[in-house]
Design brief:
By secondary structure, this protein is α+β, with helices and mostly antiparallel strands. Helices cover 60% and strands 19% of the residues. The protein contains 4 helices and 3 strands. It has helices at 3-18, 33-44, 48-61, 71-83; strands spanning 21-26, 63-69, 87-90. It has a 3-stranded antiparallel beta sheet with strand order 2-1-3. Helix 2 (33-44) packs across helix 3 and helix 2 packs antiparallel against helix 4 (71-83). The longest helix has 16 residues, at 3-18.
Length: 91
């Protein structure tokens, strides 16, 4: 194995290790901005400004990544969003 092949192999291993999942929040016609903001603060540990920005993005773009991390960290957070009546999934 030459130097270039070894470097490419190490890069692929690092990408696999660094792969993180995302919680994607989807727009709906039911929940208020305040409810979405409060839920993001509670479930995803967002600052109020960050939660507001995500709520605006969801409203205008239809969806927004609201949290990234390992699946084990995201699963209970996504469950809290779903229990609060929001539409979200882990990708």
């Amino acid at each position: 194995m030459n130097f270039q092949e070894k470097g490419q192999e190490e890069l692929l291993v690092e990408e696999a290790i660094l792969k993180q999942n995302e919680i994607v929040l989807f727009n709906d016609d039911v929940n208020t901005f305040d409810h979405v903001i409060d839920t993001l603060i509670y479930a995803c540990d967002h600052a109020p400004e960050q939660a507001e920005q995500c709520a605006i993005l969801v409203h205008y773009k239809g969806k927004c990544t609201v949290k990234t991390g390992s699946y084990d960290d995201l699963e209970p957070r996504c469950s809290k969003l779903l229990q609060a009546g929001l539409s979200a999934e882990i990708v």
